[in-house]
Amino acid sequence: MTQQEPAGISPAQVRAELAEWVGQYWDPAMALHDWRVLLLESGWAVPSWPLRWHGRGLPAWADELVGSELLRLGAVGIPVGSGTWLAAPTILAHGGDDLRERLLRPILTGEQTWCQLFSEPGAGSDLAGLSTSAVLDGDTWVINGQKVWNTSAHHADLGMLLARTDRDVPKHQGITYFVLPMKQHGVEVRQLRQMNFHASFNEVFLTEARIPKDNVIGAVGQGWTAALTTLAYERRFSALHRPSYSPASGRALDEARAEADDHFATYSWYPQRAGRPDLIIEHARAAGVADDPVIRQAIARLLTLHRVSVWTAERARAARALGARPGAEGSIGKLAASTIARESARVHAMIAGAKGMLTGPDSALGGVIAEVLMSVPGQSIAGGTDEIQKNILAEKVLGLPGEVRVDKDIPYSQIKHRG
Ligand SMILES: Cc1cc2nc3c(=O)[nH]c(=O)nc-3n(C[C@H](O)[C@H](O)[C@H](O)COP(=O)(O)OP(=O)(O)OC[C@H]3O[C@@H](n4cnc5c(N)ncnc54)[C@H](O)[C@@H]3O)c2cc1C
């Protein structure tokens, strides 16, 4: 990807230029879609992207700055969701011009939503061991297999699908990255109910599902490289933030709020998944144990961990602002988030005692604590488990010897347990 960075542009200049443009074009009464088309055409949608692909060739820091400035000015930015956060940067980095032409625009206007179809019952951490197959039949790929834990697959238009196109090469080499149209006969999506009673995930059964021949991101058999890009962005966006839209009225704002409500309904338990360290002091006070020395020490330890991880995230943000691609700091941040979530759940449990197991209005913090206790385990699994993050840090950051991977270099078809 080539970037034309205007030399020496400062954040203050970007802010001023954006404010002038918003002053001229933003009208809350317009349709959200029409506003997003204006954002695209002006290059303010993703200002760090190249001019040809809806950007302005600005430095990497401009995306975050413009996103928050649009909100501050009372306007709306690009949609939230895995299309914007995962599919779009992957397509920009690895897709051909035809795919960029067809797919980036509807992602950035919010016309098409996406889900990630990577994990399988037998391939999670060992994602490259996946067995869903894709066979070319004339102008169409025919897909058979099963995916699982696919967040939001029940309302997505398109899926980022990894499937095996060659069984006679080592497992990482025979994978292709497809764009799967979800609304078709061969795709059956079944929602899964979690132990915290929410249903954010799905199993996706693919039976003779069809994909047009050209819906391939990167080259056939080279899907692993593009998948690594998606995974790197996934670690970076593991914290989901709902945009704080202006409370003013207007069609564009109403539609943006409805879009966010719809999207974040799936993620309503994610704050609880992160352990709710923000509620810990309130919880201790409400339970009358804020002066208990053991509880106070546990709270101090938790909030210290939390504060340090905020600094790490700020360091990562500063590195990105200088144009660095997402890297090891994503794994550090993700691991820290898991540690904090578990520690926070432990301290909430110390405070609540057995009452922490109760749900409903009479229970600790109106049932929030019970939801924390049942949601926190997911934090250590989603987007790569804690153990896998540790492997990445050991190898990529600390330079320790690589994990023994006995099936890495032999053809996939000869890996024993695959038969
Ligand atoms: C909240 C949430 C959202 C998710 N969203 C999606 C989604 O949208 N799309 C999608 O495709 N998937 C999604 N997933 C699936 C997720 O990516 C997988 O669950 C994850 O990669 C782990 O795979 P697994 O469940 O098969 O566990 P396994 O890989 O079977 O792991 C089992 C245990 O073995 C350990 N382990 C495995 N390999 C190693 C190793 N080499 N070294 C040390 N320990 C190891 C693991 O750490 C874990 O403790 C989601 C999961 C969660 C919890």
Percent helix among the residues? Answer: 40-55%
**Cα radius of gyration in angstroms:** 23 Å
Strand order of the largest sheet: 1-4-5-8
**Helix/strand class:** alpha+beta
Distinct ligand kinds? flavin-adenine dinucleotide
Task: Name the overall outline.
Answer: globular
What is the average of the pLDDT values?
A: 92
Question: Could you give the order of the helices and strands?
Answer: HHHHHEEEEEEEEHHHHHHHH
Helix tally equals 13
What portion of residues belong to β-strands? 5-15%
The major β-sheet equals: 4 strands, mixed
The total of beta strands comes to 8
Provide the low-confidence segments as ranges.
Answer: 1-5
Determine the N-to-C terminus distance: 41 Å
Question: What's the topology here?
Answer:
Layout: H1 11-25, H2 32-42, H3 61-72, H4 82-94, H5 97-109, E1 114-117, E2 133-137, E3 140-148, E4 158-164, E5 175-181, E6 187-192, E7 201-212, E8 216-217, H6 223-236, H7 251-265, H8 270-273, H9 280-286, H10 293-321, H11 328-352, H12 368-379, H13 386-397
Bound molecules: flavin-adenine dinucleotide.
Flavin-adenine dinucleotide (FAD) binds near residues 119, 124, 149, 385 and 388.
Write a brief structural summary.
The chain is about 45% helix and about 10% strand. By secondary structure, the chain is an alpha+beta fold. The site of flavin-adenine dinucleotide (FAD) has 18 residues, from strand 1 and helix 13.
